[in-house]
Q: What sequence folds into this?
């Protein structure tokens, strides 16, 4: 007993530093590891396997649940991530902080595949650092058997003040999204930092709170609306495309007052362990086959123009799905900018809105 | 003796049933919905094994499960040994020292996980240790130890101090006194400490998230970072529940069977 115990202990201690767990076991070609950090449930796994087969490497694929938690975790700087997929405003911050390296355009030579709507956006004007991965906008999903589509079309975000919806609405418990719709309804920019405009938006949210008494949720609205528990909700078009494919009573509207366009894009950190392979990965994902697989699996819109056309066109997976294609051409639609002090202020005010229920 | 009123009986057993339902209904729900053939979390549309299939074909998920189990086993083994030794030492220590150490021991238990997590992350960063499976395992060991000590100490207090001395008077070496006399008596407490450590390690998210680095991910990290719910998690939960139940049954049966065997042998000796 004593002997076995000590042998076991010694063994465990000796093995501890050697354990690489998931890594290295299948590296029989000595293929290197590409470290990819992406949102959870945001890919078709086959894409990773195809990339591994093509370049004889191994993809270490890990997930995060928000831009902020990703940022906290990489800011230690000890992990040589090769690919991150942050959203627009977070990319702006990473560029400002000099944490990213420029793409090698001799490898990533297929940006012509991308639709013009997602190219050269304000956070990275020449796509020096980033290539869009998936994109979407924020809109309203509603039950057509309960609410007339024409009313939603006509009122846009204003419909969240309609007392007849009391108890039948979901609202995102997110200061960013809630203030965006308030500011947009009032005709302001979603990125405003003018005190009186923010105050007006705060009052609008208080009014909305008493008018419709929404249930404040986050991703629970996806299944809630797919099951038809509520009549109306704020949501991301990618999630709503899924809701629409599950429940045909539901419809989508991108309000005329303008909305937020969100772009998640691939970037390569300065301290990436394998920049060349990272550039190859970006090219691979931007090409038709991988882009098609990813967009089909997730319901979020691909930035690849051909994939967009095919999935939303005749016979496509998302044919007739109003939420799949984000709207383009409305000058009121905006991308969020990085502004930490504004974000902190909005989240304080949002707490007050939540407390006033 | 006063006979209990039927109402009272009904009330106590009804209450018991309510408590049991409250604890076990969610687990049953998950298990039932792991066989759902649609993505829905609320309406059951038909029987299928598709989520089990999708679980076993998802490499990232399987890797996370493997990591979780390996880390939990190592963390449990190491923290149980350290915790047991520490508890035995503490039970013999002077009262002042024991109380001080116990307060220190209680601190990480009461401390919110996020503080421990960020603290460990900063520690590793400032020591320039790259976060990896090793730092993750070390973190798990460190937060498991206090639970083991807390579970074993009360049992040690019940022991008669003289038993170990008596054993040594009768010729046992200190090591023998420890392994043949003390350990068998506190064995149930060690086991329950180990089980607590195992489950703490198994489902930890916050500390793992900040101490793991990029080459390892456990199942909590995998599930927590999902943008949309994947019902394969139901299948996974069902498998975990069944495995844990089997382990518990075995843990309870084995001592029982051993007792029976010993009793049979007794008349011969």
A:
């Amino acid at each position: 007993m004593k002997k076995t115990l000590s042998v076991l202990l010694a063994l465990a201690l000796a093995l501890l530093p050697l354990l690489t767990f998931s890594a290295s076991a299948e590296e029989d070609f000595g293929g290197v590891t590409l470290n990819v950090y992406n949102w959870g449930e945001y890919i078709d796994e086959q894409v990773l396997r195809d990339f591994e087969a093509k370049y004889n490497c191994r993809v270490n694929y890990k997930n995060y649940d928000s831009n902020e938690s990703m940022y906290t975790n990489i800011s230690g700087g000890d992990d040589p991530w090769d690919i991150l997929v942050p959203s627009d405003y977070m990319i702006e911050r990473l560029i400002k902080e000099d944490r990213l390296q420029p793409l090698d355009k001799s490898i990533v030579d297929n940006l012509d595949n991308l639709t013009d709507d997602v190219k050269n956006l304000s956070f990275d004007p020449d796509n020096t650092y980033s290539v869009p991965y998936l994109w979407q906008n924020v809109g309203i999903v509603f039950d057509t058997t309960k609410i007339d589509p024409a009313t939603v079309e006509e009122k846009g975000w204003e419909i969240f003040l309609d007392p007849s919806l009391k108890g039948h609405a979901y609202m995102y418990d997110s200061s960013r999204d809630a203030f965006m719709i308030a500011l947009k309804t009032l005709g302001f920019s979603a990125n405003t930092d003018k005190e009186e405009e923010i105050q007006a938006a705060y009052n609008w949210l208080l009014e909305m709170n008493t008018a419709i008494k929404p249930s404040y949720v986050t991703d629970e609205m996806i299944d809630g609306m797919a099951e038809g528990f509520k009549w109306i909700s704020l949501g991301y078009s990618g999630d709503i495309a899924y809701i629409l494919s599950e429940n045909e009573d539901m419809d989508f509207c991108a309000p005329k007052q303008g909305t937020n366009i969100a772009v998640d894009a691939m970037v390569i950190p300065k301290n990436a362990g394998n920049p060349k392979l990272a550039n190859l990965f970006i090219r691979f994902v931007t090409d038709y086959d991988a882009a098609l697989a990813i967009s089909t699996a997730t319901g979020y819109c691909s930035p690849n123009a051909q994939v967009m056309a095919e999935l939303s066109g005749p016979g496509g997976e998302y044919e007739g799905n109003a939420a799949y294609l984000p709207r383009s051409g409305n000058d009121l639609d905006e991308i969020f900018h990085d502004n930490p002090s504004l974000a902190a202020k909005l989240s304080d005010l949002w707490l007050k809105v939540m407390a006033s229920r | 003796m006063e006979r209990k009123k039927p109402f009272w009986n009904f009330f106590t057993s009804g209450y018991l049933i309510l408590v049991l339902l409250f604890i076990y209904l969610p687990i049953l729900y998950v298990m039932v919905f792991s066989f759902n053939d649609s993505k829905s979390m609320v309406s059951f549309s038909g029987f299928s094994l598709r989520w089990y299939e999708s679980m076993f074909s998802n490499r990232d998920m399987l890797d996370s499960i493997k990591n979780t189990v390996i880390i939990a086993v190592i963390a449990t083994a190491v923290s149980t040994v350290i915790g047991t030794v520490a508890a035995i030492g503490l039970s013999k220590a002077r009262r002042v020292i024991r109380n001080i150490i116990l307060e220190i021991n209680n601190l990480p238990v009461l401390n919110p996980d996020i503080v421990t997590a960020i603290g460990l992350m900063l520690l590793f960063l400032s020591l320039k240790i790259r976060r990896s499976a090793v730092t993750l395992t070390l973190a798990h060991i460190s937060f498991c130890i206090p639970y083991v000590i807390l579970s074993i100490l009360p049992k040690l207090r019940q022991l008669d101090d003289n038993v170990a001395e008596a054993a040594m008077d009768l010729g046992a070496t200190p090591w023998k006194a420890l392994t043949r006399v003390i350990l068998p008596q506190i064995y149930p407490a060690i086991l329950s400490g180990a089980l607590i450590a195992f489950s703490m390690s198994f489902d930890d998210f916050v500390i793992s998230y900040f101490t793991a680095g990029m080459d390892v991910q456990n199942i909590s990290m995998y599930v927590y970072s999902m943008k949309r719910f994947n019902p394969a998690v139901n299948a996974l939960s069902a498998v975990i529940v069944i495995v844990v139940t089997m382990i518990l049954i075995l843990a309870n049966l084995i001592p029982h069977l051993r007792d029976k065997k010993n009793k049979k042998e007794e008349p011969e000796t």
Remarks:
- Residues 80 and 194 of chain B are 6 Å apart (CA to CA).
